[in-house]
Amino acid sequence: MSALRVGLVGAGFMAKAHTLAYVNARLLSPDALPPVERVRVADVDAELARRAASAYGWSEGCADWRAVTRADDIDLVDVATPNDSHAEIAIDAARHGKHVLCEKPLANSLAAAREMHRAVELAGVRHFVAFVYRTWPAMALAKRLIDDGALGRLIRLRAMFLHDYGLDRTLPLTWRLRRSSAGAGSVGDIGSHVIDLARLLAGEIRRVMARSATVIAERPENGSGLMRPVDVDDLSDVLVEFAGGATGLIETSWVATGSKMDLAFEALGDRGAVRFTWRRPMELQFYSEDDPAERRGFRAIVIGPRHEGAAPFWPVAGQGLGWGDAFTILLRRVLASTSGQPVAGAATFLDGLRAAEVVDAAIRSATEGRWVDLSPDELPVDPRPVLRRPPDG
Amino acid sequence: MSALRVGLVGAGFMAKAHTLAYVNARLLSPDALPPVERVRVADVDAELARRAASAYGWSEGCADWRAVTRADDIDLVDVATPNDSHAEIAIDAARHGKHVLCEKPLANSLAAAREMHRAVELAGVRHFVAFVYRTWPAMALAKRLIDDGALGRLIRLRAMFLHDYGLDRTLPLTWRLRRSSAGAGSVGDIGSHVIDLARLLAGEIRRVMARSATVIAERPENGSGLMRPVDVDDLSDVLVEFAGGATGLIETSWVATGSKMDLAFEALGDRGAVRFTWRRPMELQFYSEDDPAERRGFRAIVIGPRHEGAAPFWPVAGQGLGWGDAFTILLRRVLASTSGQPVAGAATFLDGLRAAEVVDAAIRSATEGRWVDLSPDELPVDPRPVLRRPPDG
Amino acid sequence: MSALRVGLVGAGFMAKAHTLAYVNARLLSPDALPPVERVRVADVDAELARRAASAYGWSEGCADWRAVTRADDIDLVDVATPNDSHAEIAIDAARHGKHVLCEKPLANSLAAAREMHRAVELAGVRHFVAFVYRTWPAMALAKRLIDDGALGRLIRLRAMFLHDYGLDRTLPLTWRLRRSSAGAGSVGDIGSHVIDLARLLAGEIRRVMARSATVIAERPENGSGLMRPVDVDDLSDVLVEFAGGATGLIETSWVATGSKMDLAFEALGDRGAVRFTWRRPMELQFYSEDDPAERRGFRAIVIGPRHEGAAPFWPVAGQGLGWGDAFTILLRRVLASTSGQPVAGAATFLDGLRAAEVVDAAIRSATEGRWVDLSPDELPVDPRPVLRRPPDG
Amino acid sequence: MSALRVGLVGAGFMAKAHTLAYVNARLLSPDALPPVERVRVADVDAELARRAASAYGWSEGCADWRAVTRADDIDLVDVATPNDSHAEIAIDAARHGKHVLCEKPLANSLAAAREMHRAVELAGVRHFVAFVYRTWPAMALAKRLIDDGALGRLIRLRAMFLHDYGLDRTLPLTWRLRRSSAGAGSVGDIGSHVIDLARLLAGEIRRVMARSATVIAERPENGSGLMRPVDVDDLSDVLVEFAGGATGLIETSWVATGSKMDLAFEALGDRGAVRFTWRRPMELQFYSEDDPAERRGFRAIVIGPRHEGAAPFWPVAGQGLGWGDAFTILLRRVLASTSGQPVAGAATFLDGLRAAEVVDAAIRSATEGRWVDLSPDELPVDPRPVLRRPPDG
After folding, report:
1. Most buried among B44, B187, B290, D142, using CB within 10 Å?
2. Residue C13's CB: how many other CB atoms inside 10 A?
3. Which of C180, C187, C183 lies closest to C159 in space, CA to CA?
């Protein structure tokens, strides 16, 4: 298998998570995946780029992202910058024939997301959004149970992503907390993850009714330390209707007192149900009406090597994976796909666009206090063959 | 202490729960509470009334509820009939000078609830609604923590009451499933309980945005067995804004696959939080920012005799109370109050009215797809002295 | 059905729990159970007896327990005194032809327990020990799953009963904490409960190896307040071998920091397993190798009216029962049995004797630091027909 | 910082876990840790060694482990072979001046463990045993709480490591299941981990009383497939007394139906308690008598970057680490220490020896059915300075 040459744009926090994932994905599956060449890191802060390259084993660092998107020695461009630069970088990469992996959310506006999707489709490159929870083994098992009919007809989908770090009033107004750069607050940042999970499990969303709040209304400006108003939400509730008829409820918060990474969902069908919480990331709760009435109950399935996504890791069920491993699992898909293997499971720019549509509708709904319908564009048909299961499934 | 003479209207399922509670309340606290004379049971089905009287130790059964509401030998009228007869019976009892305990929800319409509240206030009798969870020890502890400031300023209140018994398609169209008799579906029936808890913990509700669904749209008619459309919701989500500024979210469902009595809430403040679920009814989860940062976490407080409401029961923390005991705790308040003791804690017709206002607004909101403001009437001042703590507190 | 006339010996704490249970058992099942006449309470403290009689609705109180055991107007003698008087009272009652219900443990010595068992068998009366957890619905379900073969061959039984109230150093040297009156410490008091559960689920015990400790070695004497040495254990571990081949492990403690009523067990077979904890008393965890490998896990069966013992209570699964209800369930068995109905499920003096044998062996083992074999006496065959299921099963 | 040159002996399953850990430890902390050169892998199966080298990025593979232990280009020898070859390899490495990291248990006999410890001490090299749970963040927090006095005087230590994979009767008689190669069954294999944790938290063990069983008594021989008797335990209970006075209880099992990696412990003191289970690896339960009586309860502390060991990973509490990360955390200690930094926390050969003493005593106790005292050798004083906290603490 010939090596995959990767260029990374953005040398911030995500550079570490992505680098480890490239390395681990390959080490865990040396026979199934191509070697990865960590060719180049670009960052507007050239010094940061150089330090990241040196620290994380990339061959070089540079200031100009075009040295990544347009370079001949790059096959895959990994975009890990703030949201407002995703579009320009990813589109340029696509136009230069690179496969693209983009951090979530896809963009800081629906218009940008649309353009990005159009660009990668036109270019015919592979494209991925880092919705890392979609390929998490317990999620994949939930998806399989639903696809296999174990839940019957889907009635209800609840999902939430709750943190409390936003309660810290000294937290400065970083790019994530400004609408101009981030595009949205909690509903777009962590919200795009749960919207993606909701779509994965319950299908497309038809309309939404959202309520947003900004509980911590002022924060210190980076640098000056002056208090400035926050113009994005730190808490949102989104009532959802799925095209398939199920009702949904999505909650996001950065100010959920005591919540530490409470990513959770519940999918209820008329024959069964699944529940998940990141507080017990290696378990999926499954309830089936097929059990005898006296013996029915949610069972805690402990994820192990039998389960899709977990196989390349450790031999004993319950040994457990961590947050970093979620990136490794995603990158397994990305590496397999970009090396020509017909695998599926990773979210694409189409998924990123769909999430952006929902976020956009939610923001309008919260502003206007009414239900907002989604009208997805006519979609280009994805021309590539897709297998249901990755090789380790 | 002179005996309290009770008359019961309605000999259905609740007659058992209420009878046990009268008996147990007195047996648990023979020195603090008056003896209870179970004088008379009335039911439109005279034979059922007679059997209930005989089975549950009431002196007699009769068909005419006026033989309870207007009798000289009755001090307290206990209304345990379907919702659509609450108003007529309770108002008649009040007009004849009886104290009244009414099953929830207070009425099958907001108008009826208003009339009932006016009637008891005019009559100057004691009045109670059987919101039995409000006095449950873990709830009382949650309330005390909030009142004591342990949570800081309240940001968020989530509450839910989820069952799955409605998924049984053979469940017939009983009075609870018809709007004419019940007034509302899940949002009014189990919803009135959680609305009451929400108000208890977070104060009055200013406006609501609701979404309702009827997942099981047809059910067999009682008797004929013919399939008839269901005209009440079996699933609702209510976005809430509290007058105090907190955001709220209330969910009710009879079709929550796998949920067995999932009554739960979470109250989040900027200094702490509490969580409760009926799946562990003897625990309250409490999180405090006052703990050292490295040692912070939700702690499971196990309810025991130290905690308000639980004292008259068993000596060891964690021995545990059951659903029937919730009625016993409520009736302790009712018996103490009607025997002239200045206790509080039980919900009154005013609480029943407030819940009815919220249910009414939620139904309008769900129908019209928009936020609905609540405009509470000018309230008569409650003239009776109220102590914060019941005697066992 | 003619009334059952009950006499109670002992007017202490248990008088309340037993009285409520007599009343509730009958109220819950007026058609299935006889009326109960609360005839007489005896206590060495005559004044206490009179107050208990008045408070709890017994016709009279008296000082001489023989006025209960030998009275013509008594059918069932309920022995709720300290352990060291069980034998004399219960034997006298049996000799006078009364059915006997005795609080646990059966006696304060193995010799006394043997005599008691012989006496009731000779007298041909019905006899019960208040092992109230054996008939708790989740335990009954565990037993049924084992009997139905859902666990396969039993490999392992772990059980524990842990409290922390003994950590309070001001707790005085009551009769429970003196070997002369109690017979044993935690291993006999709460231990007899878990030994009974262990036998229920895994069959007879062949040998034991115990280790005991007295963590709080001195306590204030009642009255004088002088510190005196404690001569019973407050913490024990008992390794067990069952006649059927399973290994067992039993833990008891009054000094288990943070434990509030942690009664728990786990029964493991080669085809499945069950787990229970009183922290979630309305759930039984069940694991089955019959589930497909990818969907296997412990499922939380929520107890409801379908389950044995819970039927007479409330209509919705998960509403929940409390500690007091455990006595009600036991007394349903006792009342049905003493009124001539062929029911089973309640523990008898034989079960009390078997537990006493294990406690005796455990104390010897702990003292001598070696395994101790049990050699049960040749048992008289129980002559009465026994049905597997109580009427509500 | 000059690079650390590592040689690995054993190309089996652990080669993957160790390789990833070397890589990740360095990538997570490029500034704090030396670069790691993966120099050479040796395995008796030369082909396996070569494939592992190629797959996992080691410069070469070879058949002779002496090419690792005696090579000039190696600083640290990592011994990841079956237990019966640990001693010979590790001792040879030490004699040739290499630092040594040895997989657990240290050896397949107490005598071998003693020799190994003597060898590394004589050689003055750094030595580590891969007790990877000791440095897991929640364990480190438990240790710190105990050291800080938050639990008061320790009363009790329970620990267990339970799996069910041994219930699979087709599992062949690998080296882990033969006494000659493994030295012991569950009590030595997974048992050595929990013995290490017990010592970490409660100090040295004075005497033990063990009971072992071999539930699956025959297994197919590798190759022939013929059924052969199993000569090691698959289930053990070890009663323990600590030198400090606390009582202990250790359970190990490969046949714990439904248990998937149930590594758990509970340390109880007279002022507080901690509980941990690998089922929720990112939480430590902490109970403190210092909390007000009405608000006391076990609190779930969610591990995050504030906690020792977790800092180099991810920025948000609750993101979570997996089993592989446990090796990374251990190797951080090993790499820092072997590069001359004065860090502590990792288990040494002395810890490995102490665990071997306990395992040896447990086996003798189980065989002879009696308590066995431990008489630790006179210990050489560890000559190296030790800091309480690693740099990321």
Report:
1. B187
2. 11
3. C187
Report chain C's mean pLDDT, rounded to a whole number: 94
Distance (Å, whole) CA D268 – CA D157? 6
At B340 the pLDDT is 86
Round to whole Å and give the CA distance between C30 and D255: 48
Q: Does the distance separating the beta carbons of C321 and B319 come in below 8 Å?
A: no
Report the mean per-residue pLDDT for chain A.
94
Q: List, as ranges, residues 117-146 from C with C-beta within 8 Å of A.
A: 141, 145
Residue C369 near chain D (CB below 8 Å): yes
Find, in chain B, the residue whose alpha carbon is nearest to that of C19: B27
Q: Which of D170, D268, D298, D367 to mutate to test the interface with C (most CBs of C within 10 A)?
A: D268
In A, which residues are within 8 Å of C291 by CB distance?
A: 299
Q: Is B155 on the interface with C (CB under 8 A)?
A: no
Residue type, B244: G
Query: Residue A300: which of C293, C294, C298 has the nearest Cβ?
Result: C298
As for the ipTM of the complex, it is 0.94
Q: Which residue of D has its CA nearest to C169?
A: D270
Asked if C306 has any chain A CB less than 8 Å from its own CB, the reply is: yes
Closest partner residue to B270 (CB to CB) among A155, A167, A235 is A167
A292-346 confidence digits (pLDDT tens): 999 999 999 999 999 999 999 999 999 999 999 999 999 999 999 998 887 788 9
Per-residue pLDDT of chain A (393 residues; tens, 9 = 90+): 799 999 999 999 899 999 999 999 999 999 999 999 999 999 999 999 999 999 999 999 999 999 999 999 999 999 999 999 999 999 999 999 999 999 999 999 999 999 999 999 999 999 999 999 999 999 999 999 999 999 999 999 999 999 999 999 999 999 999 999 999 999 999 999 999 999 999 999 999 999 999 999 999 998 898 999 999 999 999 999 999 999 999 999 999 999 999 999 999 999 999 999 999 999 999 999 999 999 999 999 999 999 999 999 999 999 999 999 999 999 999 999 998 887 788 999 999 999 999 999 999 999 999 999 997 654 444 433 333 333 343
Q: Do the Cβ atoms of A36 and A332 come closer than 8 Å? A: no
User: Does any CB of chain B come closer than 8 Å to the CB of residue C324?
Assistant: yes
Are the beta carbons of A249 and B237 separated by less than 8 Å?
yes
pTM: 0.95
Q: Indicate the helix (H) or strand (E) that contains B166.
A: none
Q: Which of B155, B213, B370 sits opposite A215 (nearest CB)?
A: B155
**pLDDT, tens only, D180-201:** 999 999 999 999 999 999 999 9
Q: In 3-state terms, what secondary structure has residue B238?
A: strand
Phi first, then psi: what are they for D87, rounded to 5°?
Answer: -60, -55
For the record, the structure tokens of A378 come out as: 């006519």
d(CA B26, CA D259): 47
Buried b (16+ CB within 10 A) or exposed e, C335-353: bbbbbebebebbbbbbbbb
C12 interface with B at CB cutoff 8 Å: no
D155 neighbourhood in chain C, CB within 8 Å: 215, 235, 255, 257
Whether D371 and chain C come into contact, CB under 8 Å, resolves to: yes
For the purposes of burial, counting CB atoms within 10 Å of the CB of B86, is it exposed (0-12), middle (13-18) or buried (19 or more)?
buried
Contact A79, A89 (CB under 8 A): yes
Compute CA distances B310 → B140, B318, C17, C39, C321, whole Å. Answer: 10, 10, 14, 29, 14
Q: Number of A:B CB contacts under 8 A? A: 94
Alpha-carbon distance of C201 to A64, in angstroms, equals 71
Chain D residues whose beta carbon lies within 8 Å of the beta carbon of residue A260: 302, 304, 316-318
